[in-house]
Amino acid sequence: MHAKARRSLDFYTALPKVDLHRHLEGSVRLSTLIEIGHIHEINLVGTEHLRPLVQVGEDEPYTFENFLSKFATLRLFYRSPDVIGRITREAIEDAAIDNIRYLELRFTPVALSKAEDFPLGEVMDWVIDGAQKGEAESGVKTRLIASINRHESLELAEKVARLAVERKDRGIVGLDLAGSEATAPAAPFIGIFREARQAGLDITIHAGEWGGPENVHQAIEDFKTQRVGHGVRVMEDPHTVALAQERGTTFEVCITSNYQSGVIPVLATHPFARMLSADLNVTLNTDDPSISQIILSQEYRLANEELGIPLSILRDQTLAAARAAMLPDSERADLVEMLTAGYQKIASTL
To answer: What is the CATH code for 9-349?
Structure first.
């Protein structure tokens, strides 16, 4: 695969896109945080003071500790139902500006509840309401994934899973296991995720990001997941690669995030291209666009111009993302058809 000529960001923005892996808490506009800080008298306001606490800068260490530290600050800002609804609407609006046609927005109810000790069910309802309004205003088809942190208690996980199942007909379509893969095991959560799947939720598991390929194997074999968040370290084990090929596992890859969080020491060595060459089902996503100061169009440009992924392959993987969406079969087919038509209009540029 060879890099193509450089194009403007507008070119990549014009491509219709799908984002399967975007965290709400990592998608909050800096300007919104500053405004919330003033309203609620949070003593971190002012761009020069707040930015390094919530966004990764070029002069910072690219480690998972530094990356995750941004979320600790962000938890201070979820102060009201209006705030939670607003950041949800704005995340979808930002996706629309980036020409994302389908968005799966994952959110961590426990994180959103912390600042004011809100009931978890009410937090979920506020996110659902914000997502419904954001979708109606922007036209971006949006579905929600409730996220559980593996470093928090099983009791909390069981509660989040139960509340999510209760809301599966209102836009919450999946359950995600996230958090510090480097320091907390996933195995205790297997039963919770199996029950959630049996109750009608799809599942996705963060694995093979800060942990090794054995975690990807566990996600596929023990959790029975069809989707793996990140999963880039799968390439370290041929047996796990073969398992992912056999099962048709979809990988939700986030290139810039993998670099900034220390998973990939050198950006040019990111395994996205090798995963494609191994016939793995790889999709391109943002993870935490505000923390990383990126948009998905920039990730497409990075994949094309720095990693040498042809635009035709990026188109194919966009369609693969649509086929992996947590949607009923008919809605997935409609999404694929819409995206295919969008790419046909710009076919001569690919």
So the answer is: 3.20.20.140
Structural domain boundaries of the chain? Answer: 9-349
For the chain, 350 residues long, the average pLDDT of each consecutive 10-residue run is: 72 97 97 93 76 94 93 95 98 98 98 96 98 98 97 96 97 95 93 98 96 97 98 98 98 98 95 98 98 98 96 97 98 98 81
pTM score above 0.90: yes
Residues noted as catalytic: 209
Contact between residue 290 and residue 275 where contact means Cβ atoms under 8 Å apart:
no
Spatial contact of 84 and 32, defined as CB atoms under 8 Å apart: no
Q: Which residues pair with 148 in a beta bridge?
A: 177
Report the half-sphere exposure of 312 (CA within 13 A, side-chain side): 5
